[in-house]
Amino acid sequence: MIRPAKPLPILAALAFLALGPAPAAAAGAEALARGKYVFEASGCANCHTDRAKKGPLLGGGAAIKTAFGSFFGPNISPHRTQGIGAWTEAQFIRAMREGVSPDGRHYYPAFPYTSFTRMTDQDLKDLRAYIFSLPPVDRASRPHEIAFPYSVRAGLWLWKRLYLETGPFKPRAEKPPEWNRGAYLVEAMVHCGECHTPRTRLGGLDRDMWMAGNGDGPDGERIPNITPDAGTGIGKWSAEEIVESLETGILPDGDEFGSLMADVVSYGTSKLTAEDRKAIAVYLKSLKPVVHRPVGAAKKKQAGK
To answer: Under a CB-based contact definition with an 8 Å cutoff, are residues 47 and 62 in contact?
Structure first.
């Protein structure tokens, strides 16, 4: 006797065809590999994972203390309600390019979209594909702790008019490919300027002091000058020493990077290819030297007493 086929496998197959494959499978192995590279270079996990408390990957980060208040990296895991799992590709790119959420809210620039806006569409698509391949985390994001008037998001549209220039990085035709690659990494993907450039009173990057160090960086840390000035920057470092530091975290004098930069190296620049680290060194060595020795916030307070 011929038995009728069981309906469940057929229904499951029809559902698969209707809904399509999971995002990770749809992306393909090559896209996921590229996305992982972008993910590590961009340091996504550094702000969106609370490593000190052994928190889940991308489930929300520890506080980033600034002069404007404390910001908490939200859950950006692919959870559909607590994370960004319901975001379309267009919504993800808009958030990275324009600093706007799917429901139209302006993001605070603690999220460095002022740099990420310069990433290519392909890198952003690959980054999203990789994030969507990771485990979803069912945990609510912690709200920021910001005092008035900075707690009013409506003012961010004006801030963006002053400090946000949207659009992907444009290579300079007169520069060699290695320089352009280094500029792209530093200015966009690795977003070095977000910490190494001082900010105005309104929190925008002071472009005239590009990479000249920040005395009041995240968590009040003093972020060094990395322009080629020999006295206050890294002008005495060779390109090879810069490459070595980005790979190992060891400085030319034998000391080691500490605190925030240690994480940047461990989880970010050490994962780059040797060619990309060299490109960063080439770009940094080409910058205008700026004489500036940033003073930490704690010393500023002492001096003001």
So the answer is: no
CA dist., res. 97 & res. 55, Å (int): 28
Sheet holding 63-66, edge to edge: 63-66, 69-72, 145-146
pLDDT band at 26 (very low <50, low <70, confident <90, very high): low
> How many domains are there within the chain?
2
* Torsions phi, psi for 204 (to 5 deg): -85, 155
Is 119 found in the same domain as 194?
A: no
Cα–Cα distance for residue pair 100/103, rounded to 1 Å: 8
Residue 151: what pLDDT?
A: 87
Over residues 225-245, mean pLDDT = 97
Average pLDDT (100-108) is 96
Per DSSP, helices labelled H in the chain are 7-19, 23-27, 29-42, 44-48, 89-98, 113-116, 121-131, 156-163, 177-184, 193-196, 239-248, 259-267, 274-286, 297-304
pTM above 0.85, yes or no: yes
Query: Is pLDDT of 190 > 60?
Result: yes
Q: Are residues 46 and 112 in the same domain?
A: yes
Q: Which domain holds residue 26?
A: 22-168
CA dist 109 and 183 (Å) reads: 21
Residue 9 lies in a domain: no
Cβ neighbours of residue 154 closer than 8 Å, sequence gap 6 or more: none
CA–CA separation, 154 vs 175, rounded Å? 40
With a cut of 80, say whether residue 184 has pLDDT above it. Answer: yes
Closest CA to 247 of 218, 219, 268: 268
Residue 303: is its pLDDT beyond 60?
A: no
**pLDDT, tens digit (0-9, with 9 covering 90-100), for 60-71:** 999 999 989 999
Angle between helices 29-42 and 121-131 (to 10 degrees): 100
- The secondary structure of residue 137, as a DSSP letter, is -
